[in-house]
Amino acid sequence: MIDLIDTYWLYFLVGQYPHGPLGGLALTLILAVLGLLFAFPLGLVFGIARVSPWRCVRWPVSALIQVVRGTPLLMVIFWAYFFLPSLTGQNTDQFWTMLTALVVFDAAYLAEIIRAGIQGIGKGQTESARSLGFSYLDAMRLVILPQVVRNMLPSLVNQFVATIKETSLGYIIGLTEVSFIATQINTQVLTKPAEVYLLLGLTYFILCFGLSRFAFWLERHHQQRTLAKAHA
Amino acid sequence: MIKIERVNKWYGSYHALVDITEDVAKGEVVVVCGPSGSGKSTLIRTLNRLEPIQSGRIVVDGVDAYGRHVKLNAFRSRIGFVFQQFNLFPHISVLENCTLAPTRLRGLKPSEARDEALTLLDRVGLAAKARAYPGELSGGQQQRVAIARALAMRPPLMLFDEPTSALDPEMVGEVLLVMRDLARDGMTMVCVTHEMGFARDVADRVLFMDQGKVLERAVPSEFFARPEHPRLRQFLSDIRTPFLQAA
Predict the structure, then answer these.
(1) Cis ω on the peptide bond leading into residue B169 (within 30° of 0)?
(2) Class of residue B188 by CB neighbours under 10 A (exposed 0-12, middle 13-18, buried 19+)
(3) Do A164 and A32 touch, CB atoms closer than 8 A?
(4) Which InterPro entries match (chain B) (predicted)?
(5) Predicted TM-score of the model (pTM)
(6) Which candidate, B143, B230, B225, B229, places its Cα nearest to that of B182?
(7) How far apart are CA A47 and CA A115, in angstroms?
(8) CB A130 within 8 A of CB B53
(9) For A33-83, what is each residue's pLDDT tens digit?
(10) Given A133, A142, A146, which is nearest B153 (Cβ)?
(11) For FRET with B52, which of A214, B14, B109, B215 sits at 20 to 30 Å CA-CA?
(12) Angstrom distance (rounded) from CA B50 to CA A139
């Protein structure tokens, strides 16, 4: 196992870089970070649209979200892979294909987290903002969303954990993220599949478990702060 | 200041407001009381259009509230509204609660808004709490901040929807004190409240509502001494003998 790590650690971490495209764990993390980074504003817009008082905004976005949430990510990736080029007329490389799929998929899930957050705030907040003379969108932007985003920080970290694991499906379209690299290593070594995939599993686990604990800590921290305020 | 003409409101088939016609003059303090479900909160919420109405007309400060061309946000910004549940913004400080609307909607510079807010907070006795967060205040303090926040928009009219009903008994007084102070300064006020002492001392007129109708309107002395409507007599005797009722 040690010699396995000794030989392949760099390949595992960054793929063929700098002699080829960046891959491995680095690519996995970059994909997850960018995926969530782009999905967040989109999810925010979708989430607001989901509770919009205007039907023409609410319905199409709700339909899109339901379709995406009712579909496995693998399907979304296939759509992005086969459908996107025919739409744009250009061949999209694996990285952007995967990123597009991740962003659409995560945005749909984030939208539901944000919708629940908005609905959890209580209509008194909106009413008092509107009574002061704020428009609906200003009330959303200045009063509701800051509270929602603060409340949903733990969910956001959990979504990041999910995204990290989701990037492994990039394997299917030949994206050289860490699972793909692990498979490559396995093919080269041939005799140690258990060790190779144990290492891969451990890598995911350490990352995701650490982040989950962080989300849990955030949640407790938030609870304590709210409690402390309530008792002050 | 306020003209209410033949206003009707239904919740589904429930007739919540029945042909209400009332006037409130500038500088007048009107208290609306009545049993729960009588429509008094609904009525006050229609005045700044928090609730839609199905027929009739409401004119506030010369603006037809339900008119087609009303600029709703500008209209609302000229009416202070105080809620039963305070509804302060919990994620920003007391001071920011009072400066948010003035800086965004009245175009004040942050420093001007801050000075004005501190003056108002001082007026409600809470200048020392300017940097605190709403969650750190007692109910009575929160409601006083809510009043200051509403006043920060410099409205010519203040509406109070049961401002003391969510408070512990010992905190009711401090909020009423602020409201008395406002009334003394000549603010036009409409208050839905069960505080009969406040109605007696401060109101120019008291309205009694039941089942969506205004059954009686009178100056406080008449209202309490010579109630005409049997339903009002019943109501007044009920609130005077809570112990007997409980027994």
Answers:
(1) no
(2) buried
(3) yes
(4) AAA+_ATPase, ABC_ATPase_HisP-typ, ABC_transporter-like_ATP-bd, ABC_transporter-like_CS, MetN_ABC_transporter-like, P-loop_NTPase
(5) 0.87
(6) B143
(7) 5
(8) no
(9) 999 999 999 999 999 999 999 999 999 999 999 999 999 999 999 999 988
(10) A133
(11) B215
(12) 14
Q: Nearest Cβ partner of B91 from A130, A131, A146?
A: A146
Residue located via tokens 């919740």: B11
Q: A22: buried, middle or exposed (CB in 10 Å: 19+, 13-18, 0-12)?
A: middle
A124 touches chain B (CB under 8 A): yes
> So what's the ipTM on this one?
0.93
Q: How far is CA A147 from the centre of its chain?
A: 21
B139 contacts in chain A (CB < 8 Å) = none
Q: Nearest CA of chain A to the CA of B50: how many Å? A: 7
Q: Which residues of A touch B105 (CB under 8 A)?
A: 132-134
Which residues on chain A are in Cβ contact (under 8 Å) with B131? none
- In the chain, the amino acid numbered B243 is F
Count of other CB atoms within 10 angstroms of residue A1: 11
- Which chain B residue shows the shortest CA-CA distance from A126? B87
Sign of CA dihedral A46, A52, A58, A62: positive
* Domains parsed from chain A with CATH numbers: 2-231 (1.10.3720.10)
Alpha helices in chain A (DSSP H): 2-14, 24-50, 55-69, 73-78, 84-88, 94-120, 123-132, 136-138, 145-151, 153-166, 178-189, 193-231
Contacts of residue B148, defined as CB under 8 A and 6 or more positions apart, other chains included, come to: B98, B117, B120, B121, B123, B124, B126
CA B143 – CA B175 distance, rounded (Å):
7
In sequence order, the β-bridge partners of residue A22 are A15
A119-177 pLDDT per residue, tens: 999 899 999 999 999 999 999 999 999 999 988 889 999 999 999 999 999 999 999 99
Nearest Cα of chain A lies from the Cα of B171 at a distance, in angstroms, of 16
Q: Among residues A151, A185, A173, A141, which one has the least CA distance to residue A24?
A: A185
The one-letter amino acid at A84: L
Give all strands of the β-sheet with B63-64 in edge-to-edge order: B14-24, B2-11, B55-60, B63-64
Q: Which residues of chain B have a pLDDT value below 50?
A: 245-247
Quote the CA–CA distance of A5 and A23 in Å, as a whole number.
17
Is there a contact between A130 and B100 if contact means CB atoms under 8 Å apart? no
